[in-house]
Design brief:
- The chain is built from 17 helices and 18 strands.
- It is an alpha+beta fold.
- Strand 8 (166-172) and strand 9 (178-182) form a beta hairpin.
- Helix 8 (228-240) packs across helix 10 (283-299).
- The longest helix is centred in the last third of the chain and has 18 residues, at 389-406.
- The chain starts with a helix and ends in a 7-residue tail after the last helix.
C-alpha cells in the first residue's frame, strides 16, 4: 500500500500541482482528526483539488488502485465522520470556496462545497435573504460538510435542517462519475438519501441551496431560572401554547460557567439554567407571541428576563450559547460532545437522570441543547491525564445515549454517527434494519472505498475492512431484494 500511495502521489502531483498534494508526515498530522479529537488517524495521502473534474479523476485513480478515500471540508465535524484512513487518500475540498451563482428571483444560490456556511448569508444579505441552517460552527464549517451530516443549528426548530434547504447537489459518485441529484420529480429521492449520508455515497462538488427572506422583525430574550427543570417547564409551556420560536435554546449552570470564563457573556449570576428564545416573522405576530413567551417564562419561575434592544444586544445574548462547546475547555482538560435526541415532554425526566448519572459516576456533565426539538448536547467532562477517567466518561456518554433510545429518541440529531457512534447503532436498529441501510450504500458504492468504516458498526455487504459478509443476505433469501 505504501508503494501504491507513492504512485498515486506522483500522479496527483501532475494533476493538481505540488502545492495541492501533501505527503510530508508533519503536515499530514494536520488532518488526523476532525472536531472530535478522541479519534485520530494520520492519512496516507492528502490532496486539495479545486474542481469537480479533479475530484472525479482522483476517485477514479483510487478505485483503480483499490485505495480507500475520504472527503473532508473544514474539519469541524463532531462524530469522526471525516476521520481519514492511514492506508488511504484524504480529499480536502477547502479550496473550492466560490459562490457560483446568486439567483434572487428563484431564491437560490449555487455554491462549492468548501464555502463557509455564514459566507452564504453574507453574500445574499444585501438582497434581503439569508441561508437558514446555522450550526454553532457556522463561521468556520463548510456547506459541503453541512450536506454530509445534514447539520442543524439553533434555528432548526422553525426552519429545519440542511436537507430542507438543498435543492440539488452535483456529486462525484464512488466510481468517479459526475452526476446531479435534484429534489422533487419522479422516482426515488436520491438527493434525500445523499444529504446526511455522511460522505459514504459520494463527494459533493456543487450545491444549490434555498434562500430564505430576512424576517420583518426579530425579538430575542434571555430568561434565567433557578433550576433546569423550571426552564424545561417553560419550554413545554411555550410549545403547548402554539408558539413556534425561530430558536429556543437552554444551558445549565456548568455550561454557563464555561461560557462566562471564555467570552464573558454576562448571563444572570446564580442561574441554574438560562433559556434563549428568539421569535421572527411579521412584526405584529412577533410582538403578540413575544408577550406570551415572556408571560409563560415568568409563570414557570424565571427570576430575570432580558430582552435584546437591538442587534448588538441580541449578539451578546447568543455569544455565550454559540461559544459553549469550545468554552468547556476553560473548565475541563477534555470532554466528550454527545448529540442525543428525546421527545420534548421527556426533558425533565431525562435531565434529572443525567444529573443522577453524573453524581453516581463522579463525572461532570454540562448540558447545552436545542430545547425546542429535544436535541441534547451533553458535554461529558474528564481529565485525560487521570488513569481511567476517559473510560468512565465514555460509560456515562453511552448511558446518556441509552436514555435517549429508551425515551423514544435517537443517538444523533445533527452531528452524525461517523466512527464515534457506530457501535451504538445496534441499540437503535435491528440486524435487518442495518442490512437494509447497507444495501442502499452498496447500491452507490459496491467496492466499499468511499469513506469506509463510518456509520455501520461492523462490515456487512460492501467488503469494508476487515472483510466481506458471508452467506446470502436475509432480504435476498426472502425474495425481497436482489444482490448483484
Amino acid at each position: 500500500m505504501e508503494q501504491t500511495l507513492r504512485a498515486l502521489a506522483e500522479r496527483f502531483t501532475g494533476l493538481l500541482g505540488a502545492d495541492a498534494v501533501i505527503t510530508d508526515p508533519v503536515r499530514l498530522r494536520t488532518y488526523e482528526c476532525d472536531g472530535l479529537t478522541a479519534h485520530r488517524a494520520v492519512p496516507g495521502l492528502v490532496v486539495l483539488p479545486d474542481s469537480a473534474e479533479q475530484i472525479a479523476e482522483i476517485v477514479r485513480a483510487c478505485v483503480a488502485a483499490g485505495v480507500p478515500y475520504v472527503a473532508r471540508g473544514s474539519g469541524t465535524g463532531l462524530s469522526g465522520g471525516a476521520l481519514p484512513r492511514t492506508d488511504g487518500v484524504l480529499i480536502v475540498t477547502a479550496r473550492m470556496r466560490r459562490v457560483l451563482e446568486i439567483d434572487i428571483p428563484n431564491r437560490r444560490a449555487v455554491v462549492e462545497p468548501g464555502v463557509i456556511n455564514l459566507d452564504v448569508t453574507r453574500a445574499v444579505r444585501p438582497y434581503g435573504y439569508y441561508f437558514a441552517p446555522d450550526p454553532s460552527s457556522q463561521q468556520i464549517c463548510s456547506v459541503g460538510g453541512n450536506v454530509a451530516e445534514n447539520s442543524g443549528g439553533a434555528h432548526c426548530l422553525k426552519y429545519g435542517f440542511t436537507a430542507h434547504h438543498v435543492l440539488a447537489c452535483e456529486i462525484v459518485t464512488p466510481d468517479g462519475e459526475i452526476a446531479t441529484l435534484r429534489a422533487g420529480g419522479p422516482g426515488y429521492d436520491l438527493l434525500g438519501a445523499f444529504v446526511g449520508a455522511e460522505g459514504t455515497l459520494g463527494i459533493t462538488t456543487k450545491i444549490t441551496v434555498r434562500l430564505t427572506r430576512l424576517p420583518e422583525a426579530v425579538r430575542t430574550l434571555l430568561a434565567a431560572f433557578d433550576t433546569i427543570e423550571a426552564g424545561g417547564a417553560a419550554v413545554s409551556a411555550i410549545i403547548a401554547a402554539g408558539v413556534v420560536p425561530a430558536a429556543i435554546e437552554m444551558m445549565d449552570a456548568l455550561s454557563i460557567e464555561a461560557a462566562e470564563a471564555a467570552v464573558g457573556c454576562g448571563y444572570p449570576p446564580g442561574a441554574g439554567a438560562v433559556l434563549i428564545v428568539e421569535l421572527d416573522g411579521p412584526a405584529a405576530e412577533v410582538e403578540h407571541q413575544f408577550a406570551e413567551v415572556e408571560r409563560l417564562c415568568r409563570k414557570a419561575g424565571a427570576f430575570e428576563i432580558r430582552v435584546a434592544a437591538g442587534d448588538a444586544e441580541r449578539a451578546l445574548i447568543w455569544k455565550g450559547r454559540k461559544s459553549a462547546f469550545a468554552a468547556v475547555g476553560r473548565i475541563s482538560p477534555a470532554y466528550i460532545v454527545q448529540d442525543g435526541v428525546i421527545p420534548r415532554t421527556a426533558l425533565p425526566e431525562v435531565l434529572a437522570r443525567i444529573d443522577e448519572l453524573s453524581a453516581e459516576s463522579g463525572v461532570r456533565v454540562a448540558n447545552v441543547f436545542h430545547a425546542g426539538d429535544g436535541n441534547l448536547h451533553p458535554l461529558v467532562l474528564f481529565d485525560d491525564a487521570v488513569p481511567g477517567a476517559a473510560e468512565r466518561a465514555e460509560e456515562v456518554s453511552g448511558a446518556i445515549l441509552d436514555l435517549c433510545i429508551e425515551h423514544g429518541g435517537s443517538i444523533t440529531g445533527e452531528h452524525g454517527v461517523g466512527v464515534d457512534k457506530a457501535r451504538y447503532m445496534p441499540r437503535m436498529f435491528n440486524e435487518t434494519d442495518l442490512d437494509t441501510m447497507q444495501m442502499v450504500r452498496c447500491g452507490f458504492d459496491p467496492a466499499g472505498l468511499c469513506n469506509p468504516g463510518k456509520v455501520f458498526p461492523t462490515p456487512r455487504l460492501c467488503g469494508e475492512v476487515p472483510g466481506v459478509r458471508r452467506g446470502v443476505h436475509p432480504l435476498v433469501a426472502q425474495g425481497k431484494a436482489e444482490q448483484f
